[in-house]
Amino acid sequence: MKKDKTNISKPKSGMGRLLELAATKKPLIISSVILSALASIASFIPYIAIYFIVREIMEAYPDFNQLDVKKTVGFGWIAFGGIIGNILLYYAALVCSHLAAFGTLYELKVNFAAYIAKLPLGFHLTEGSGKVRKIMDENIEKVEGFIAHQLPDLVAALVAPVVMTAILMSFDWCFGLAALAGIIAAFIVEFRAYGNANAKTMMDKYQTSLEDMNNASVEYIRGITVVKAFKQTVYSFRRLHETIKNYTSFVIPYTLSWENYMSGFTTIVNNIYLFLIPVGIIIGTRTSDYKAFAITFIFYLLFVPAISSIMLKIMYVSSSGMQIINGVERMDLILNKAPLAETREPKTCKGYDIEFCRVSFSYEEDKENRALADVSFTARQGEITAIVGPSGGGKSTIAHLIPRFYDIAEGSIRIGGVDIREMKFEYLMDKVSFVFQDIYLFKQSITDNIRIGNQNATDSQIIAAAKAAQCHEFIEKLPEKYNTVIGSKGVHLSVGEQQRIVIARAIVKDAPIIVLDEATAFSDPENEYLIQKAFEKLMQNKTVILIAHRLSTIRGANNILVMEKGQLVEQGGHEGLIAQKGRYYHMWNMYTRSLDWKMHSKKEAEIHG
Amino acid sequence: MGNLKELLLLTEKGYRDLKKAILACTVTNLSLMLPFGVTIGIFMELLKPFMGEEISWIKMWGYFLAGIGAAVLVFLANKNDYKKTYVTSYNESEATRIRVAEHIRKLPMSFFNSKDLTELTTNMMGDCATTEQVLSRVIPQLLANGISIVIVCIMLSFFEWRLALTVFITVPVAFFVILGSRKVQNRLSESHIQAKLKASDQVQEYFEGIKVIKACGLEGDKFAALDDALRFMKKIAIQMEFVTGIFVTGAQIIVQAGVGLTVFAGTYLLTGGQIELIPLLMFFLIVVRIYGPVLVELTLLPELMYLRLSTKRMRTLISTAIMEGSTEKEIKNFNIEFDKVSFSYNKVNTPEESVIKDFSVSIPAEGITALVGPSGCGKSTVSKLIARFWDVDGGTIKIGGTDIKTLDPEHLMSYMSFVFQDVVLFHDTIYNNIRIGNMEATREQVLKAAEAACCDEFAGNLREGYETMLGENGSTLSGGERQRISIARALLKNAPIVLLDEATASLDPENEVLIQQAISRLIKGKTVIVIAHRLRTVAGADKIIVLNQGRLVEEGTHDTLIAKKGLYEKLYRIQQESMGWSV
After folding, report:
1. Which of A61, A73, A123, A217 to mutate to test binding with chain B, by most B CBs within 10 Å of its CB?
2. Contact B437 A509 (CB under 8 A)
3. Residue B48 at interface with chain A, using a CB cutoff of 8 Å
4. Does B365 touch chain A (CB under 8 A)?
């Protein structure tokens, strides 16, 4: 990826990783951090100003005529100024941090999406979309909170104690030490709460149970139409119910495990003055200058509450920091999966023959269950190469290997003599068009759906492609014609119509190689004919690899590959294969028999005579 | 308070618990006054020598002990509060999740047609998480803070009303600022929620269409729809933060202006001899601390407004009407009668726009009836209306003389099996996926159905056989294999009516034969309604119903329809021709 600053070169974890993510917007982050630190310093001003006011008053006591009202009120202004300074600086800090945060968020998401598209297709088949979406929607989203709020707060929380200590110590070191003892006590409680190793595993479990619940609900809703049909909503409901119950039964004890720490922390932070009292009594009983002592003591009593608000911020930073770190780890888990390697010295090809040379491949790690075993063939430019065979034979696997949805274990796949692994992805994708069996249209306008094939296509090219794919006519009948958004209200496209849009997509791409899955059979009688015409347009003068289901379709193919259990068992033209009386011959017989099948109500249909 | 229950969809118990949580939170807030009281005591003692009295160090030790006692109380109050709020919120959001899920399963099919997956899941999970947050963080704090502010305000007023006034006068002003900004904030929140949903939707689409994305080289920001949605969300989010921030910041400044006011007023009152030193000092002590809870209120209020909006969806969902009907009525015979049925998916203005128009037909029991017609003619709709996926707009559908509108949808379903094109599979074992057809079935029955549906052929090749786990939505299986699982489900269910989409194709030649065998077993002796694509297959049907543009155009047997030379004959002819197509 070109601008992938967020990708990990050296794996970092925890806070280091978060800072690394934040560092993509350095100037904003630095300004935010400085402003936030200044804000936290400003927050002490009112307390000190109040102290000086008290001192003025005490000095004058009991004769207030001596009181320098102007000076006293001046301190009042300073107190107020400190407050405004604090608020405005903090707001400015948040402005910077939010700009940085939303920017980072956007980049993280886009890069994550881009990265995920580079992973082998197997990843998408095994990971639920609910889980991946949660990472985008929730886990990455939380980074926003970290950069926008926690990071400035964290810096404030680090700067504040230093300034605080300086202030505390500068007035009177005895009281200063006493107050510090209180702060340290609070930190110890805090540290014990988050420092233990158990907390991390618990957080992990928490996230997992949340993910389970999420996946279960995606599945619940996706399946609802079916389970309703089987009157089984209770069953699928029960599964979801279980994950919901699991989540609660985990989260409550988990939350309660913090109970004592949290309460202890809040209590200490609000009672730091208690640390001052014994010190005050001891100093007070021995002091010679009572007035000075009393004023100092009062200063500390006034000042320590300022500590509590800062300390509470620290607590918030560490508690949500854990969640964010865990969220980022989940993102990284995926970012750490190896993408398909892209070559450093990309080559281009001149011809468009596709050559499979002793290709072996298995979806899983184990070598026994191979999806393709030692398959070799050549699909020549300008010819149609058809692949037939029972399901699981390896037809779709061949189709999926050409666009490098997976990388092969052994052998090589070449286009025009160049190994596809030595081509740039973009280049490879430019050269090959695909029409898959599982049609996918985006909830965009029809124009945009066709344009997916070629981002630079003009409107007239799109219309031309639509006409060639036999979909112009029905598109014109739609309420908004080419601007009709798929999936919007009142737009019902039949499967056949959807398929023709997909073909238009491939036509507009105009790649020299076409890999297509002949799944015309899904459609309605009228459409079938139209799709066939669309196919004809698409296949003109191309290297075509056709996965065939209906054997009659491919009688005219230049070469027919018969796949079975991952092996190429026969190849040749229709007539030749029939004459061989082998696997293909058997399949052909089966096929012609299945055409004669009719449903009967009275007796079980006899197909196998 | 009453509409709080409605707002958050609380249960009776949850509402009671919430009230307890608010009380606990108030107690905590008030307990924090105790250290404050002790501090005042120490102040007074310290100042005694200034008044010419003797300071009592014994009393100081007493205050220390009292302070420790107070700290213990603070600890206990916090603990109690922590437990109450969190346990309540988690239990309540569990109850809400279950309630929403429960409600969803009773909604009519039409509901799932108009809502998409993302929105529904966000509803269920996102909004419940939001409720969880509101319950644990926002509501108890907001109310408890409000209550304690009022209490403190009253107490201080008794003590010294003039200073109390200067301390609190800014509070209502700040609240007005926040409440006054509500309109702007609501608008922003609304668009933020929309932007978020849109982005989420795009992300889902991106992952679902990943094959196309990969094949067309449109990863990440090259896929414009996703990129736009994410960019837009960024823009809206920044806007919202800034505007909310300005109001909150403004309100915070206004509130804290009270510090200045108190100093000025206090100093003048003191020099004028109107008040004593102790009360003044006390107010100084108060004024630097009292705004804490108020500031919290100011930040929580906008949050509450936002949350109110984001839970609106959930409230709409919960209030969506469910389909009802009798669960008792037995259907004895399975003749299906359509009488002047009209139907459309969305509201239409003229009857001409309906999907099904003035449709009257009878479907005989224990026979095969085929629905035939060009794409978009309404044949799938007709079959789904029989199952009451939707209620008809006009006319009636009767099965065995009973209007299906009077039957509970799930009860009605128990008389029917479906084999449709889109097979939904669960992330579970193959065995369990089949067992959905009839949860009461024994293992033997399940396996028998699986065998009859020709599932043995592929399940046997898998390492763990029927115990093999399927990926999300069964992504590891081929179309033909999925189809056979769905037939096995239907066989297991053994319902008297079979609704069938003859979509045997897209499969491999050998599978096709297997599926045909399976279907033949399934339909034996049943009332079968088949949506036909390959007309040859249904040529032997007892009755063929031909639809065009939502209307009945022809009905009869294959032979009579062919002889009629109408639409059926035309379709049949086109198909015969395309069957011979070859590359």
Report:
1. A217
2. no
3. no
4. no
Average per-residue pLDDT in chain A? 78
Residues of B in contact with A36 (CB under 8 A): none
Quote the minimal CA–CA distance from B4 to chain A in Å: 23
Order of all β-strands in the sheet with A384-388? A432-435, A513-517, A543-547, A384-388, A559-564, A567-572
Pairing of strands B497-501, B416-419: parallel
Strand boundaries in A396-442, DSSP class E = 410-415, 418-419, 432-435
Residue A220 burial (10 A CB sphere; 0-12, 13-18, 19+): buried
Question: Chain B contacts of A119, Cβ < 8 Å?
Answer: none
Beta-bridged to residue A379, according to DSSP, are A354
Respond yes or no on whether the N-terminal peptide bond of residue A62 is cis (omega within 30° of 0).
yes
Identify the closest residue of chain A to B270 by CA–CA distance. Answer: A64
Q: Which amino acid is at B533?
A: H
Find tokens 């070169």 and name the residue: A9
Chain A touched by B60 (CB under 8 Å) = yes
Rounded to 5°, the CA angle A528-A533-A537 comes to 145
Contacts of A498 in chain B (CB under 8 A): none
Q: Do A266 and B539 touch (CB under 8 A)?
A: no
Judging by beta carbons within 10 Å of its beta carbon (0-12, 13-18, 19+), is residue A569 exposed, middle or buried?
A: middle
Tell me: the pLDDT tens digits for B194-207?
888 888 878 877 87
Q: Which residues of chain B neighbour A297 with C-beta distances below 8 Å?
A: 46
Per-residue pLDDT, averaged over B520-531, amounts to 84
Q: Is B230 on the interface with A (CB under 8 A)?
A: yes
Q: Which residues of A touch B32 (CB under 8 A)?
A: 270
For the stretch B545-566, what's the b/e string if a residue is b when 16 or more beta carbons lie within 10 angstroms of its beta carbon? bbbbebebebbbebeebeeeee
Chain B CA closest to residue A515? B215
* CB of A522 closer than 8 Å to CB of A499: yes
Instruction: Give the span between the Cα atoms of A223 and B535, in whole angstroms.
Output: 30
Determine the 3-state secondary structure of B263 from DSSP. helix
- Say if residue B152's pLDDT is above 70: yes
Select from B32, B106, B375 the Cβ nearest to the Cβ of A497.
B375
DSSP bridge partners of A559: A385
CA atoms within 13 A on the CB side of A315: 24
Helix (H, G, I), strand (E, B) or coil at A358: strand
What integer pLDDT is reported at residue B77 of this predicted model? 92
Token digits of residue A7: 């990708």
Q: How many CB atoms lie within 10 A of CB A360?
A: 16
Count CA within 13 A, CB hemisphere, residue B279. 20
The reply to whether residue A61 touches residue B277, judged by beta carbons under 8 angstroms, is yes
ipTM of the complex: 0.72
Selected residue of A24, A58, A66, A230 to mutate for chain B interface (largest B Cβ count, 10 A): A230
Over 50: is that where the pLDDT of A302 sits?
yes
Put simply, whether B121 touches A (Cβ < 8 Å) is yes
Beta bridge partners of B500: B419, B530
Q: At what angle do helices A69-117 and A14-22 cross, to 10 degrees?
A: 90
Residue A237 near residue B105, CB atoms below 8 Å: yes
- Helical residues (DSSP H) of A223-289, grouped into ranges: 224-229, 233-256, 259-270, 273-286
Name which of B208, B217, B471 is nearest A126 (Cβ-Cβ): B471
Residue with tokens 């491919």: A554
* φ/ψ (deg, to 5) at A570: -150, 155
Contact B372, B567 (CB under 8 A): no
Contact B539/A at CB under 8 A: yes
Average pLDDT over every residue of A318-322: 66
